[in-house]
TrEMBL record:
<keyword id="KW-0812">Transmembrane</keyword>
<protein>
    <submittedName>
        <fullName>Uncharacterized protein</fullName>
    </submittedName>
</protein>
<dbReference type="InterPro" id="IPR047928">
    <property type="entry name" value="Perm_prefix_1"/>
</dbReference>
<keyword id="KW-1133">Transmembrane helix</keyword>
<feature type="transmembrane region" description="Helical">
    <location>
        <begin position="83"/>
        <end position="99"/>
    </location>
</feature>
<feature type="transmembrane region" description="Helical">
    <location>
        <begin position="105"/>
        <end position="123"/>
    </location>
</feature>
<keyword id="KW-0472">Membrane</keyword>
Amino acid sequence: MNRLKNHVNRLFIGYEENQQVRELKEEILSNLTAKVADLESNGVEHKEAVSLAIQSIERVDHLLDDEIEVFTNKFKVELIQSALIYSIIAWIMTMPASIFRMGILVNYLLLVVVIILGIMFFLDCNIKCNKT
């Protein structure tokens, strides 16, 4: 029981002691105790049952956080990706029009837009990939 209680206390290091944390500690401790009892009833030795119960819960941060994570960067990357794809298509479609003076200007303008969006996409995608 002492090892279980110590494990539960270690799980909550860094969290402010409030009513929610106290209730969650009690619930986790009772669940771990029940798990140990269940494992022992199935023939597992006490020390091994405690170790298995401790291994079953390694973190509690997902249980305490009331805030929902919103991945705005994902939306931004997808938006830039869509703009990049449509810009590339428009740039390719204006290549035959580059025979004319006005077509050259539009073609180069779209090429610059493609390059800028490509750089933005690359940078945002790298930021997203490094966070996960």
